[in-house]
Specification:
With 260 residues, this protein is α+β, with helices and mostly antiparallel strands. The protein is built from eleven helices and seven strands.
Length: 260
């Protein structure tokens, strides 16, 4: 066994460590979704291919090598949401303000982002919860979520509790779907949001909660959900759902989530 360590370099250790970190991060993204079983299958096929190549089995190694090579495009299609989340995590974590940001690199940006006014949002959620009116509010962080806003009806209005409550009235034409709030304004309502495929979501939760989790998985948004059946408030952030949130707790969480 000594000859193995004679040729083992420090760069090989770094190579193994980075590969392990990458695989672990991918596993964290697919864990709890139906894609985790596909991940296990791909990982098993790759390990078999490494063993076959080490044993110099030409025919089987060639077949598995072609399968892995041609399967890359199929993997990008199958893991489309997971790849999107992976890139979103990287962009959100390492390109925030104060670290690496295009806003600091390009000084010609003139538009000023207004500070959020969370009071009318919390007040609207309180009243909607009391009246058991279902609501789905998507608060954009860095991205303005224009692609999702275009699926609904443009509003572009100042945030007020009265306007939020009137939009989500059960007999209103805009109550169905999600409301997108960006740059301290109501951008659009009746927006179509992606639904999560996470099988760990409690079965008693409906499509509104699943859409809220799915939206937080597909973007860097913070989603507030008000249940129509129970009136309870929940929020979804980075794919994690927190239920039974009090209005006072919601008022404390929002400034912490959107702190510069």
């Amino acid at each position: 066994m000594g000859f193995i360590f004679d040729t083992f370099r420090f760069l090989d250790f770094i190579d193994i460590l980075l590969a392990a970190i990458l695989i672990f991060q991918v596993y964290k993204l697919v864990r709890g979704t139906v894609a985790v079983n596909i991940f296990y299958g791909i990982f098993l096929i790759y390990m078999v291919w490494l063993v076959v190549r080490a044993l110099n089995m030409q025919l089987l190694g060639s077949i598995l090598g072609q399968l892995i090579g041609l399967g890359l495009l199929a993997l990008l299609i199958v893991f489309q949401q997971e790849v999107r989340r992976f890139l979103l995590v990287i962009g959100t974590r390492y390109f925030r303000k104060g670290m690496i940001s295009f806003d600091t690199l390009f000084a010609f940006r003139k538009d000023h982002e207004e500070d959020w006014n969370f009071a009318p949002i919390v007040e609207a959620c309180t009243n909607l919860s009391y009246s058991k009116t279902g609501a789905l509010l998507v608060l954009a962080k860095k991205s303005e979520l224009r692609a999702f806003a275009e699926t609904g009806c443009a509003v572009d209005a100042t945030i007020s509790s009265e306007l939020i409550e009137s939009i989500f009235r059960k007999d209103g034409p805009l109550h169905d779907g999600g409301m997108i709030l960006a740059r301290n304004r109501i951008s659009a309502a009746r927006c179509v949001l992606p639904v999560t495929e996470n099988p760990n979501i409690p079965p008693d939760l409906g499509l509104r909660h699943r859409a809220g989790v799915g939206m937080s998985e597909s973007s860097d948004s913070f989603v507030i959900i008000v249940s129509e059946e129970t009136g309870r408030i929940a929020y979804a952030n980075q794919g994690r759902l927190v239920e039974n949130v009090g209005t006072e707790e919601l008022g404390r969480i929002l400034p912490l989530i959107f702190v510069p």
